[in-house]
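Trying the structure run again after the queue cleared.
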Amino acid sequence: MGGAIHNKKEQMDYLHRRLDLVMNVLDSIDPEEAGVEEIDRLLAMLDDIEVKCKQFRNDWSE
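Done. C-alpha coordinates:
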Protein backbone atom coordinates (compact mmCIF):
# COMPACT_ATOMS: atom_id res chain seq x y z
CA MET A 1 0.00 0.00 0.00
CA GLY A 2 2.44 2.67 1.17
CA GLY A 3 5.56 3.15 3.19
CA ALA A 4 5.92 2.85 6.93
CA ILE A 5 4.19 5.52 9.00
CA HIS A 6 6.20 6.65 12.01
CA ASN A 7 4.81 10.13 12.67
CA LYS A 8 2.02 10.10 15.28
CA LYS A 9 -0.12 12.57 13.32
CA GLU A 10 0.19 10.48 10.16
CA GLN A 11 -0.69 7.37 12.15
CA MET A 12 -3.83 9.03 13.52
CA ASP A 13 -4.73 10.30 10.03
CA TYR A 14 -4.33 6.76 8.71
CA LEU A 15 -6.67 5.38 11.38
CA HIS A 16 -9.25 8.08 10.67
CA ARG A 17 -9.20 7.23 6.95
CA ARG A 18 -9.55 3.51 7.64
CA LEU A 19 -12.43 4.04 10.07
CA ASP A 20 -14.13 6.36 7.56
CA LEU A 21 -13.79 3.58 4.98
CA VAL A 22 -15.41 1.09 7.38
CA MET A 23 -18.27 3.52 7.97
CA ASN A 24 -18.76 4.02 4.21
CA VAL A 25 -18.88 0.27 3.67
CA LEU A 26 -21.30 -0.12 6.56
CA ASP A 27 -23.55 2.64 5.19
CA SER A 28 -23.56 1.00 1.75
CA ILE A 29 -24.75 -2.39 3.02
CA ASP A 30 -28.43 -3.05 2.39
CA PRO A 31 -29.63 -4.95 5.48
CA GLU A 32 -32.30 -6.71 3.44
CA GLU A 33 -29.74 -8.01 0.93
CA ALA A 34 -26.65 -8.45 3.12
CA GLY A 35 -25.23 -11.81 3.97
CA VAL A 36 -22.38 -13.39 5.86
CA GLU A 37 -19.88 -12.16 3.25
CA GLU A 38 -20.55 -8.52 4.15
CA ILE A 39 -20.12 -9.22 7.85
CA ASP A 40 -16.90 -11.11 7.14
CA ARG A 41 -15.62 -8.18 5.06
CA LEU A 42 -16.33 -5.76 7.92
CA LEU A 43 -14.63 -8.07 10.41
CA ALA A 44 -11.55 -8.30 8.17
CA MET A 45 -11.39 -4.52 7.90
CA LEU A 46 -11.66 -4.17 11.68
CA ASP A 47 -8.97 -6.83 12.16
CA ASP A 48 -6.64 -4.86 9.87
CA ILE A 49 -7.28 -1.71 11.91
CA GLU A 50 -6.58 -3.61 15.12
CA VAL A 51 -3.22 -4.79 13.74
CA LYS A 52 -2.29 -1.22 12.81
CA CYS A 53 -3.34 0.08 16.23
CA LYS A 54 -1.07 -2.47 17.88
CA GLN A 55 1.82 -1.47 15.60
CA PHE A 56 1.26 2.19 16.36
CA ARG A 57 1.01 1.47 20.09
CA ASN A 58 4.42 -0.17 19.95
CA ASP A 59 5.83 2.85 18.10
CA TRP A 60 4.40 5.22 20.69
CA SER A 61 5.87 3.31 23.63
CA GLU A 62 9.42 3.56 22.26
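The chain has a mean pLDDT of 92. Worth checking whether this holds up in the mutant runs.
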